[in-house]
Design a protein that fits this description.
15 helices, 4-stranded antiparallel β-sheet, about 10% strand, two-stranded parallel sheet, alpha+beta, 2 domains, elongated, single chain, about 375 residues
């Protein structure tokens, strides 16, 4: 008996996936990714990827995912799954995020990074799902390849094509029932499952189900969107605080505010995220109070504490130096803000001066900038390091 959608959905949900769809990627329909690949190449050619050179590599693999399989597949399918990661009710998260970015002494960390690293969680469950599918249909002798940001795959486009949603103007996948607060994973396989129907946009409406809404574009603190569906990563706070290895451009620093790892602003204002669902897995529960941490608290972490407390977290990948760099920029914005309590401002300046004694050249450069923000606002204690 051939696999059917109902059985696939039951198996996927048993491993915590809230969304599941199937795309036919066999040779007869190999051109289905061509339009998305053309846009992707244009985006890379425009330089919008910044230092993420790896995104422009392996174009042939993105174009033809069959090349990613261990052996030439009979008829390739992409099983695309989604997993909710919001650790609280959508309205509560939106309200708390709005309040946090307006409180300069707070340290705002993107929701997705407050728990366990999603790469680890989803990959492990995709592999478990593959074993379950192989066990359920042993006569198919199917092969599988799990992809979670670990292979050159156009996840959002594949998700769109199998009916999980549409690409929003902020470039993320949107779903009518669940917004955008979910991770995507892809299980490539030659298991002969019938494809699922793509989400169809309303007639004559290229904006899809976003209509005329531009809330996400307007909310971006750094104006990183050069237009609908076009993100200049070089201006994106997620890129600046996570992907960028060196010095954060001076012009960008004040715009970052108190966001120290990633940015959720474009998702927070999206009307569809009133329907965002809470995570069902404890893996995405908040660790170490990262949903309410202050800059001063996190600046007091030693490197050993950073490594220990972020073990198994996506934050660990940026390392302690960049973690400090980000905190320092946010601290600079705080000490230069009239909304920062005087006692907190003094404590932040003292912490910056202490870090300056042993920090790397990269961090020292950002500390000097941060201390200067206090001077600009008429706070002379920022000059004590001279």
């Amino acid at each position: 008996m051939l696999p059917d959608h109902e059985q696939l959905i039951l198996i996927a949900r048993s491993f915590g996936f809230s969304h599941v769809g199937v795309v036919d990627l066999s040779a007869e329909v190999s051109d289905r990714l061509a339009p998305a690949m053309a846009q992707y190449r244009q985006w890379c050619a425009a330089g919008y990827a910044g230092e993420m050179e790896y995104l422009s590599r392996h174009a042939k693999l993105r174009e033809d995912p069959a090349r990613l399989m261990p052996q030439p597949p009979r008829a390739l399918r992409a099983i695309v799954v989604g997993m909710n990661y919001l650790h609280e009710a959508a309205q509560q998260w939106q309200q708390q995020h709005s309040a946090a970015i307006r409180t300069p002494e707070r340290a705002v960390i993107s929701v997705y990074a407050r728990g366990r690293d999603y790469h680890k969680v989803i990959r492990q469950r995709l592999l478990q799902m593959a074993r379950a599918l192989r066990k359920r249909w042993p006569d198919q002798d199917a092969q599988f390849r799990a992809c979670v940001d670990s292979a050159p795959v156009l996840e959002v486009e594949l998700a769109r094509q199998c009916g999980l949603g549409w690409r929003g103007k902020h470039t993320l996948l949107l779903n009518r029932e669940q917004g955008s607060m979910f991770f995507l994973g892809v299980l490539l396989t030659d298991l002969p499952i019938a494809p699922m129907q793509a989400v169809t946009d309303p007639p004559q409406a290229p904006a899809g189900h976003c209509g005329t809404c531009t809330a996400c574009l307007q909310a971006c603190p750094t104006q990183a969107f050069v237009g609908p569906y076009q993100l200049d990563a070089r201006r994106c706070i997620s890129y600046l605080t996570i992907e960028l290895k060196g010095s954060i451009p001076t012009a960008m620093r004040p715009l970052i505010g108190n966001r120290v790892y990633g940015c959720d602003d474009c998702q927070q204002v999206c009307p569809w995220n009133q329907y965002a669902q809470q995570a069902t897995l404890a893996d995405f529960d908040v660790r170490h109070g990262l949903d309410r941490a202050t800059l001063l608290e996190l600046l007091q972490w030693t490197e050993a504490q950073f490594l220990e407390r972020h073990q198994g977290s996506a934050i660990l990948r940026i390392g302690y130096e960049r973690w400090l760099r980000n905190l320092v920029v946010a601290a600079g914005n705080a000490v230069g803000s009239a909304d920062c309590p005087a006692e907190t401002r003094s404590a932040l300046i003292a912490s910056l001066q202490l870090h300056r004694q042993s920090a790397s050249d990269l961090v020292v450069e950002h500390i000097d900038w941060a201390l200067a923000q206090g001077l600009q606002d008429g706070h002379p204690e920022g000059n004590r390091h001279h």
